[in-house]
Amino acid sequence: MDRRQFVAGAMGAAMVSAKGFAAGFSGANATGSALKPMAVGLMIQPASGPEEVISRVKKLGMTNCFLSLDGYIGKFTPALATQISGLLEKYEIAATSAEVVGPGKLVWDFVDGPSTIGVVPRASRAARADALKQTSDFAKRLGIKHVQTHCGFMPENPKDPLYDETVLAIRELAKYCAANGQEFLMETGQETPTAMLRVLKDVDQPNLGVGLDTANLILYGKANPVDALDILGPYVKSMHAKDGKWPTNPMQLGEEVLIGQGAVDFTQVFTKLHKLGYTGAVTIERETSGPQQIEDVKAEKVYLERIIFQVQA
Predict the structure, then answer these.
(1) What is the pLDDT of residues 218-250, one digit of tens each?
(2) Which helix (H) or strand (E) holds 299?
């Protein structure tokens, strides 16, 4: 199953300085409603049915969503922006981030992943950069301040020829988003936190940050998310709440599981984020589909909000 398939079933501001990364996004967008710190939301894919999907966020008792927009690549029209903006306003849902990972072949494993994911692979880099620029322009129409993607298996070796190419590609994307009053976020997963920190420093753009995916660090065998915050914490601007188990097959990623059944210590994660001053959304990403997924999301929301309440008390 495509890692983004689950979302179909479940359902210009001023630029910030580098030292402002820890604050997170809690302002208003097209909905005109401000979010509470660490408000729990849901990743959704509106292309599968905009009103049905967005209305489900409301029905689940959430105030915000993270837009996965691959289904709209090449179709980001003003009319679509008006439609999505109207639905977000109708159901009083704030869209915190917009993301695409395509176009092109994507294989979420250790074998073909390095050659198919992100802007690291030369063959798909130009098309994905163009898709991300389209996404940035579309997000601007919606008042969304974060554009996010998986940049790919960024080389651990800074002397790898692909490393400098990747840095240049990310810098170009960060600058493009900056011109739209946005932050460009690299989602954790395929690289170690140290490699991502190196890229952050070498790209050297004040609007470049990190989208923390708590499970991906484990699923790819790269780091414990609690420890990763010691390295990347000041740059975290968005968060995917997801749980998983370490990979035991060196050819395949670890298993994504219901929050609370995996290796992520959410109490420690939220405690560290709170100390860092993070006030952005906490986006549930449950990679299943169908009725069971909705039940899982309901349970995960209760689980996460209980911990967040304790941490913020």
Answers:
(1) 999 999 999 999 999 999 999 999 999 999 999
(2) helix 291-312
